[in-house]
Design brief:
Helix content is about 35%, strand content about 25%. The chain is an alpha/beta fold. Strand 11 and strand 12 form a beta hairpin. Helix 5 packs across helix 6 and helix 8 packs across helix 11. The protein is elongated, with a radius of gyration of 24 Å. The chain starts with 8 loop residues before the first helix and ends with a helix.
Length: about 350
């Protein structure tokens, strides 16, 4: 893939109009057009084009050092684009008006609150930065502590909190001003799977409230929780689409997994391979009788396969269902495809 290539939701809408809304740039919460970031002779971000509609979770996924944090800093105005344009709520980030800044919440990678202040004091301090009136402030802060399940720890100082509790406090701090747009940079890094699941549950609640979330993560499996996913590599955005569409692109279609009696595996494979709706059939040598079918439309193809295998063939279909491989497999395949395009 050429390093100057970029991927945009505007382009993708033509091939996935049923899943990605076609919004005009001025309707997008975030709109980036061919924006790059250079650090002297080093390139932090190659030309980047993407748009994020309101009320969605946008996940930016990729390995450490690929440019995720640089992208967040570009969108929040910490970095100025070397070329191209960046608009958030219709404004250039480095020239945000005060009302626009108040609509944005930011959760950085590292714990940056005060370790010698209590949970309550940290939140109260952040609230004062936004000029939140004292009247009603306690109610708002308690609501946030309930949301991140820290109310019973409100008197603990920051340094006494576990890593996971510090991350939850950072989420609460990012929400103090009830932002319409939330940037969360690696919010689940270094925490256990149970707490990661809780974080994403909270993010879905925020989305249901109409908020927009821009989340970066190294955990590729978290792509499944997002509405749209951007895949980054070496400062380039190599893919941008819905999770389902990324699966189709990475795997060459949709998958159906079925299990037949091992004695009739070859006959089942022959019959399946003859079906026009089937693109490919793979056997599992570790699990005799298990076949994976690649097709363009699993919902349409699945009943046809049942009909094909039933009858007088003697084939016993033990199970058949649509199969969605983990996003780790999807990510690896996308990396391989990118290698092939270079």
């Amino acid at each position: 893939m050429n390093q100057s290539n970029s991927v945009s939701t505007q382009t993708l809408t033509r091939s996935a109009a049923s899943e990605i809304p076609l919004n005009a740039p001025e309707q997008m919460v975030i709109d980036v057009q061919n924006a790059s970031v250079h650090f002297g002779k080093e390139v932090g971000l190659y030309p980047l084009t993407m748009s994020v509609p309101p009320g969605t979770i946008f996940g930016l996924i990729g390995p450490s050092g690929c440019g995720k944090t640089t992208t967040v800093r570009l969108l929040t105005g910490l970095y100025k684009p070397t070329e191209g344009s960046v608009r958030v709520f219709g404004q250039t980030p480095r020239k945000f008006s005060t009302p626009t800044r108040e609509k944005i919440g930011y959760m950085p990678q590292q714990f940056v609150l005060y370790p010698n202040l209590s949970v309550w004091e940290n939140l109260n301090f952040v609230a004062s930065l936004y000029g939140m009136p004292l009247f009603g402030r306690s109610k708002r802060l308690n609501e946030l502590l309930d949301f991140v399940e820290l109310r019973e720890h409100k008197h603990k100082v920051g340094r006494q909190l576990s890593g996971g509790m510090q991350r939850r406090l950072a989420v609460a701090a990012a929400l103090v001003n009830a932002p319409a747009l939330i940037f969360a940079d690696e919010p689940t890094a270094g925490i256990d799977p149970v707490l990661r699941s809780k974080f994403w549950e909270n993010f879905r609640v925020l989305r249901e409230q109409g908020r927009t979330l821009f989340v970066t993560t190294q955990y590729v499996g978290e792509a499944a929780y997002c509405d749209y996913v951007g895949v980054m590599r070496d400062g380039r955005l190599i893919e941008l689409d819905t999770p389902d569409n990324l699966r189709r692109k990475a795997l060459g279609g949709e998958l159906i997994r079925l299990v037949v009696d091992a004695a009739h595996e070859r006959e089942a494979l022959r019959r399946l391979d003859a079906q026009p709706e089937v693109n490919q059939v793979q056997r599992s040598y570790r699990e005799p009788g298990t076949l994976t079918v690649y097709t363009d439309d699993a919902a349409k193809t699945l009943p046809l396969l049942v009909t094909c295998l039933n009858g007088n063939s003697g084939i016993q279909v033990q199970s058949i269902d649509r199969y969605e491989p983990p996003f780790d497999d999807v990510f690896v395949n996308l990396m391989r495809q990118d290698d092939a395009d270079v």
